[in-house]
Specification:
The complex is a heterodimer.
Chain A (H helix, E strand, L loop, with lengths): L38 H9 L4 E5 L11 E7 L2 E8 L7 H5 L7 H5 L7 H16 L7 H29 L3 H22 L8 E2 L2 E2 L7 H23 L3 H7 L7 H6 L5 H4 L7 H4 L20 H28 L29 H10 L1 H12 L7 E9 L2 E9 L7 E5 L1 H5 L3 H5 L4 H11 L3 H5 L1
Helix pairs in contact in A: 4-5, 5-6, 5-12, 5-17, 6-7, 7-12, 12-17, 13-14
Chain B lengths: L24 E7 L17 E6 L11 H14 L4 H4 E7 L12 E6 L4 H10 L7 E9 L8 E9 L4 E9 L5 E3 L8 H12 L2 E3 L27 E2 L6 E2 L9
Parallel strand pairs in B: 4-7, 8-9
Antiparallel strand pairs in B: 1-2, 3-4, 5-6, 6-7, 10-11
Classes of the chains: A mainly alpha, B alpha+beta.
């Protein structure tokens, strides 16, 4: 904060003083800031004991979307911080109650749009629990789910690191991060047809098998991703400015994390190796070889280190998954039960989309029952036994929970998502109070909230 | 239209549980095929009566670690002066298609009387054999036909120490939508309880600042309730409208 160069009182209009119309000074309180002293002294003199509450957001480039932070500041120090959310509430949970169980994936994928496949996977695992078909999901489907989730974890962490760097003014961190993410989004596009909002994982399996030659394409892309990760590591971790901005900032210790149920990299940065993939495995994660990295510092810097390390661990899992995919080529990717499996033999037609012509020819031409079945399953959907189920998965931001309730119908009676970003934002106050305004940006970036998931 | 619906005038249907079975947790009785009355149901299924019953209480042995947790919880509650028979209303084990409770997908649900919720949470969090340190939030469910227990709140707890998960379920009637706040035991439930209040109107007594969190502060009503009015969509053709989704035909 440089002191004003012009020391004359009543000089040119200052930022804290209404410009132009001098009459306004009678209605609007004006402050004059001049002198050689420290900004804190000037502020104390001008403002005294008055509270200053600054609204940061909901439209602020460094709040990761429409997060509103209400900061009470004393000079440059944040004395109280509160988060206000709800600006992106779209009622996805309510909407899901009026669509079939299969269509539910189309909705929940739009919650946390940076990590869409995790919502899909958690939701489908919960629905499969209710259907009682958890053990019937083909192995290849589970392997594809693991592959997609781990690729998504890397993509999500890259966004976190990239935007986190950008918010501190390190644009190169962002460009490298997003370039690397682009490689992964291309892989998603090859598999699901979309870069985000995939609706790819469906109750009973996945929508369609991976395309031919995918693992070759993925291996080449991931080699590049590895290179970009190396670049990011070199760019960030030894950079003295970066370290100065992040070390011992936004500290939240283990008891704080446990009290606020903060999970994911933030919890692991306190040294507790809690990861749902190890603690309560799903999709066969117990059969993969990977580590849960932890750190001791519980600060923003350690969370960056952890996220980079998690990317490498995810790459390790992806390689194992691709090996299994090569081995299980041609095996089913959807449960055998035709009362649940979506009757889609998808193939890319001349217009770039659609059902396979062979399948259409069969159901339209020769098998009336198949046509009826197809129609009923697509329009009406399958019934899910009465009951409730809960499933959690390790989301890039923490533990994602899905609570689904069925009344025996073809639509969810209730679907609730415990989004990790929603929960973790409760930690903003503890992490920011007592720090500088500039540290708020860093602390929020280390929580990595995605407001689509927070507000749903 | 109801006069063309066979059986449409039936009022009370008693659903008897099978001999010797535990009482079913009836939450709703549906009629007809398409869920909506007066929609011109000519399918012949108008007289269909479908009871919706949630899984009934399980009997011992529950299997896996479930028995141990219930035993320890009973003991700890007893020591704390809370009558366990009143606090624990029901224990439900959902196998979710598995053969035994040892399977990964088996779930334990403990129905807790709302006046003893905080004591139960305290016991579950603090006892060394229970240690459910992590609360993963509150999920509300509205069953408008579950007389006297219309509002349900489900708390999902996780024990990192023992790698266990369970669900607490608490109910409250629509007329008296109060449930004690668990924020004194699990501070993380702060926002989750605000969310459940916002969407279901459940008042969590003792919450430090129970205000809306997702909806605007001046919003009227609680949108996730089943009786929340939904709007239709006007169509610019001969004044037609698409009816609200809850009055449309469903399956």
């Amino acid at each position: 904060m440089s002191a004003p160069t012009d020391h004359r009182p009543h000089a040119a209009p200052h930022a804290t003083r209404p410009a132009g119309n001098e009459d306004m000074s009678s209605t609007v309180r004006a402050f004059e800031a001049y002198g050689d002293g420290d900004w804190d002294d000037i502020a104390r003199e001008a403002i005294g004991e008055e509270r200053i509450v600054v609204n940061m957001g909901p439209q602020h480039p460094s709040t990761h979307g429409v997060l509103r932070l209400m900061l009470e500041i004393d000079g440059e120090t944040v004395t109280e911080a509160r988060a206000g959310i709800g600006y992106l509430h779209t009622g996805i949970e309510k909407n899901m109650e009026f669509r079939t169980w299969t269509q539910g994936t189309t909705f929940c994928t739009r919650m946390d749009y940076v990590a869409p496949l995790f919502q899909e996977a958690a939701y489908c695992l919960a629905v499969e629990k209710l259907l009682g078909i958890t053990d019937d999901v083909p192995e290849r489907a589970s392997v594809i789910r693991v592959l997609m989730m781990e690729l998504n974890r890397i993509a999500s962490h890259l966004v976190c690191l990239g935007t986190g760097g950008n918010e501190m003014g390190a644009t190169t961190v962002m460009t490298v991060g997003f370039t690397a993410r682009e490689e992964i989004l291309r892989l998603f596009e090859a598999v699901t047809g979309l870069r985000m909002n995939h609706a790819y994982i469906r109750p009973g399996g996945v929508a369609v098998d991976i395309p031919e030659g995918f693992t070759t394409q993925a291996r080449a892309a991931l080699k590049n991703v590895r290179g970009y990760l190396k670049q990011l590591t070199d760019l960030m971790l030894a950079n003295p400015i970066f370290k100065a901005r992040l070390t011992d900032v936004g500290v939240l210790n283990l008891s704080g994390c446990m009290a606020l149920a903060i999970t994911g990299p933030v919890l692991r940065s306190t040294g507790l190796p809690y990861d749902v993939r190890k603690d309560n495995p799903y999709c066969g994660y117990e059969t993969y070889d990977f580590d849960v990295p932890t750190a001791k510092g519980a600060d923003c810097y350690d969370r960056v280190v952890l996220r980079i390390e998690e990317c490498y661990q995810s790459l390790k899992i992806v390689e194992q998954a691709m090996e299994r995919l090569d081995r299980t080529e041609g095996e089913p990717v959807m449960v055998a039960d035709k009362k649940i499996a979506w009757p889609a033999q998808l193939a890319v037609g001349g217009d770039g989309q659609g059902n396979s012509l062979e399948h259409i020819k069969k159901i339209m031409g020769t098998s009336m029952e198949a046509l009826i079945h197809h129609f009923k399953l697509v329009t009406e959907g399958f019934r899910v036994p009465v009951g409730q189920a809960w499933q959690t998965v390790e989301h890039p931001r923490g533990e994602l929970g899905v609570h689904v309730v069925s009344d025996g119908g073809t639509r969810p009676y209730r679907a609730h998502f415990r989004d990790p970003s929603f929960n973790n934002l409760q930690g903003v106050s503890v992490m920011c109070e007592g720090g500088q305004v500039a540290d708020v940006v860093v602390a929020v970036a280390s929580l990595d909230p995605v407001l689509g998931g927070v507000d749903r | 239209m109801s006069d063309v619906t066979p059986g449409g005038d039936q009022k009370n249907v008693a659903v008897q549980p099978p001999e010797g079975a535990a009482t079913l947790e009836l939450v709703e009785v549906k009629r007809g095929m398409f869920g909506v009355d007066g929609s011109g149901d000519t399918s012949g299924y108008g007289g269909l009566v479908t009871p919706v019953a949630m899984p009934a209480a399980s009997s011992r042995p529950y299997g896996n670690w479930f028995d141990q947790v219930i035993d320890v919880l009973t003991e700890v509650l007893d020591e704390a002066g809370v009558p366990p028979q009143q606090a624990i209303e029901k224990v439900v084990v959902d196998l979710h298609g598995a053969d035994s409770a040892d399977a990964q997908q088996a779930e334990l649900t403990i129905d807790v009387a709302r006046e003893h919720l905080v004591a139960v949470c305290q016991a579950l969090r603090d006892d060394q054999d229970l240690r459910f340190e992590l609360s993963l939030g509150v999920s509300g469910v509205h069953f408008p036909h579950d007389a006297g227990r219309e509002l349900h709140a489900a708390y999902h707890l996780a024990s990192i120490t023992h790698s266990r998960r369970l669900r607490l379920e608490v109910t409250a009637p629509d007329e008296d939508p109060h449930i004690p706040s668990t924020t004194s035991v699990y501070p993380s439930n702060d926002w989750h309880e605000r969310e459940t209040y916002d969407f279901f109107g459940i008042v969590f007594d003792g919450h430090p600042a129970l205000t809306r969190i997702e909806m605007p502060d001046d919003w009227v009503g609680h949108p996730q309730r089943k009786d929340y009015p939904l709007g239709g969509i006007p169509v610019e053709y001969k004044g037609a409208t698409v009816p609200p989704p809850d009055t449309r035909r469903s399956y």
